[in-house]
Amino acid sequence: MTLFAFETIEESRQRKLFTLLEVDFLSTHRFWLNIPLMAIAGIAVAVIFSLTDQVGSQVLVGLGSGLLIMLSNFFHGLGHIIGSRKVNAPMTALIMTVTVGVTHFEDRVEQGSLVHVGRSLDGPTLNLAFGIVAIAIYLFTLDSHFRLFFGIVNLGFCVLISLPIPPLDGSVNLRELRNWR
């Protein structure tokens, strides 16, 4: 079992959702629970930080916020696909679980530190880029709190995923920088 993926990836039934950039996006049989989970998270954020007291508005804003959380997670996986291509060790699949996306590589030989760092660095980097752009647009236009929320979520993803907690990207980077070869 992968940390933060509350199901055993190896033993779960997986279904192909689609292919993007020659990488299969697979889902576990419990992936559908991600949708109500993200909706609940978005509604909770909307209720806590809402500028309105109307329940209907809070729910709609919360559903939109949940969708933005899912979109940020998607962009994180896309960053890993881009990073793996840059180091010529492409990803074969991104397995979507209830809580996280798990990258899958079929390496035929042991990869060096540069490959591992390249693969793990571009997920948080893409989140960082989307976060900065969304917040900059918000600051210059001041027209949508969804842009601000999207920026904050992406920056949050970048920071959280970069922490040196196994098996997060920060842990991979720290391990590979210690064992650079």
Give a written overview of the molecule.
This protein has 181 residues and is of the alpha+beta class. It has one domain (14-178). The protein is built from five helices and four strands, in the order E-E-H-H-E-E-H-H-H. Strands 1-2-3-4 form a four-stranded mixed β-sheet, covered by helices on one side. A hairpin with a 2-residue loop joins strand 1 and strand 2 (23-28). Helix 2 packs antiparallel against helix 3 and helix 3 (113-141) crosses helix 5 (169-178). It is globular and about 55 Å long. 34% of the residues are buried.
Features of this protein?
single chain, about 180 residues, alpha+beta, four-stranded mixed β-sheet, 5 helices, about 55% helix, about 10% strand
Quick overview of this protein structure:
The chain has 181 residues and is α+β, with helices and mostly antiparallel strands.
Mean pLDDT, nearest integer? Answer: 86
Distance N terminus to C terminus?
Answer: 28 Å
Strand/helix succession = EEHHEEHHH
Tally of individual domains: 1
Radius of gyration: 17 Å
Question: How are the elements arranged and paired?
Answer:
Elements: E1 14-20, E2 23-28, H1 34-49, H2 55-86, E3 93-96, E4 101-104, H3 113-141, H4 145-161, H5 169-178
Parallel strand pairs: 2-3
Antiparallel strand pairs: 1-2, 3-4
Helix pairs in contact: 1-2, 2-3, 2-4, 3-4, 3-5
